[in-house]
Amino acid sequence: MPSPAESANLMEAVVSLAKRRGFIYPSSEIYGGLNGFFDYGPLGSELKKNIRDCWWNDMVRRREDIVGLESSIIMHPKVWEASGHVAGFTDPLVDCKVSKQRYRADQLFFAPVIVDGKTIGYVSALESEKTAEDLQAAAESFKRKKAVQGALAAVVPRDFTEARPEEIELIPSPATGEPGSLTPPRSFNMMFQTNVGAMSDASSVAYLRPETAQGMFVDFKNIVDTTRVKLPFGIAQIGKSFRNEITPRNFIFRSREFEQMEMEYFIHEDADWAKCHEEWIAWCEAWLKSIGLPDSHLSRYTHPKEKLAFYSRGTVDIMFKYPFGVQELWGIAARGSYDLTQHAKASGKPQELFDEATKKKFVPHVIEPAVGVDRILLAVLCAGYAEEDVTDEKGNVEKRTVLRLSPRIAPVKVAVLPLIKNKELLVARAKDLHAKLKRKYAVQYDDGGAIGKRYRRQDEAGTPWCVTIDFDTIEKPGDLFTLRERDSMKQRRITEAELFALLDEQVY
Ligand code: ATP
Predict the structure, then answer these.
(1) How far is the CA of 229 from the centre of ligand 1 (A)?
(2) What is the pLDDT of residues 418-476, one digit of tens each?
(3) Four-CA torsion 247, 251, 255, 260, nearest 10 degrees
């Protein structure tokens, strides 16, 4: 288990590599950036596309029971009334009246400082992987400052949504360290509003979608009527979602514009939903491993029954061990027939299917696996990042930074490296190989600098293989290249056909 300092270093190293190598930039950086928005650079956009493509291929193309959809980002505002988002898609917001900082009440923790059984004041801290330690340290320092003698009780952290009215003005603001400036929590709707058409009055208000899922419910009937789907079947979609998060943080983990991959799996109202739910949780875990996330970093969190929405039958989150703590990566929810029923009521259009066996109409139930592309991308960067000491041919020890990305999602699959750049036959063979490879794969041609330096460049970009074309390739029989593996750094001779066979097996 890495210490908090190691974790902070890992996060810093990942953010720095992401910027340095063109994976991720802050959005609008020349204007100072915009909090909660990011741009994906040349390597980042390839990595993101590969994550999307793997999911789409495995979820849609390689299955017979799931179809794809691309619905619009701005939908009729009534969609969001029916779904409950207008009334209830809120987070509890707390303002600090002095610093003008805003906090999510459930991420702001506090505790009374109790000495010899008497409360002498309050301390507060923002949520982190060591909230309790921070509060304990703050309580000790508070006691020292107030010069109070006696035994300090261990702090019991609570979040600000649990603060009693009389406690609120005693809790210090994390920004100023002084009590008296925090407001009681109030509901803040996270949907971004816009106006459709030339008029900007109440009648033209629309929303940027906060999730892609509603597209699947609203088009449910269209898909049933225009395709040959039969229960159980799913509708899948990948696309941008927008949430005006109060506190975007942890790099791309919680941003205001992000991408989701969601699938609604419709089942008969009498089907064994718990079994289906479990099958989808297992599918999602296996899929995450198939793109290279280690088992050791994955866990499950089952939402307690009393915290579920009234219609929900159960929700399990697949959690990932990020450097800043174990956090939700993928939510798999059993939502009953809530969404279709809501849209049937609000639109006046029944959302039912006919059961041939019972001759009765019914509203299907749904299991929903919903995941964020950006959260997966951050997970693969954090899990894949390593710094190692390696010894070169001359016996010198040097540091190498390597991104161990699965070949399935690596932005560049192979780098083609001519040993030198001024030997005509050698360059011609390298260019020929590069041209053949790039018809099928994302590859790079790199002839700049010493071969060792070129390997390091590719290690940092997560490229699984480098092939070097050298004098033996063109002078000796067999047309053999040197294949160098990123992780083991082992080298072996390989033919063009063997290289294509390797790629065919590993990149799918
Ligand atoms: P959280 O509790 O972290 O806010 P959530 O439970 O609201 O997430 P869902 O509404 O279930 O999230 O969305 C499904 C998935 O979309 C999440 O599991 C996550 O991977 C992704 N996601 C949600 N909000 C964000 C965000 N602000 N930035 C990046 N990804 C997000």
Answers:
(1) 29
(2) 999 989 999 999 999 999 999 999 999 999 999 999 999 999 999 999 999 999 999 99
(3) -140
Is the per-residue pLDDT at 310 higher than 90? Answer: no
pTM of the prediction? 0.93
Q: How far is the CA of 222 from the centre of ligand 1 (A)?
A: 27
Tokens representing residue 9 in the block: 């270093």
Displacement of CA 139 from its chain's centroid (Å) = 35
Average pLDDT score, the chain: 95
Residue 1 above 70 pLDDT? Answer: no
Between strands 385-391 and 397-403, the pairing is: antiparallel
- In this prediction, residue 5 carries a pLDDT of 61
User: Closest residue (by CA) to atom 24 of ligand 1?
Assistant: 254
Closest CA to 264 of 200, 311, 329, 333: 333
Cα–Cα distance for residue pair 208/212, rounded to 1 Å: 10
**How many angstroms separate the first and last alpha carbons of the chain?**
33
User: Do 391 and 365 touch, CB atoms closer than 8 A?
Assistant: no
Q: What is the pLDDT of residue 128?
A: 86
Asked whether 138 and 123 are in contact (CB, 8 A), the reply is yes
d(CA 231, CA 220): 12
What tens digit of pLDDT does each residue of 344-402 get? 999 999 999 999 999 999 999 999 999 999 999 999 999 999 999 998 778 889 899 99
- Residue of 328, 330, 368, 374 with the most ligand 1 atoms within 8 Å of its CB, for mutation: 328
Q: What angle do CA 286, 287, 290 make, to 5 degrees?
A: 90
- Distance (angstroms) between ligand 1 centre and the Cα of 352 equals 29
What percentage of the chain has pLDDT greater than the value 70?
99
* Nearest residue by C-alpha to atom 16 in ligand 1: 372
Q: What is the pLDDT of residues 219-243, one digit of tens each?
A: 999 999 999 999 999 999 999 999 9
**17 CA from centroid of ligand 1 (Å):** 24
Token pair 């703050």 is found at 138
Q: Whose CA is nearest to atom 31 of ligand 1?
A: 372
**Atom of ligand 1 minimally distant from the CA of 331:** 18
Closest CA to 210 of 262, 268, 164: 262
Q: Which of 89, 211, 254 to mutate to test the pocket of ligand 1 (most atoms within 8 A of CB)?
A: 254
Instruction: Report yes or no: 330 and 299 within 8 Å, Cβ to Cβ.
Output: no
Q: Which residues line ligand 1 (CB under 6 A)?
A: 211, 243, 245, 254-255, 258, 260, 328-331, 370-372, 374-375
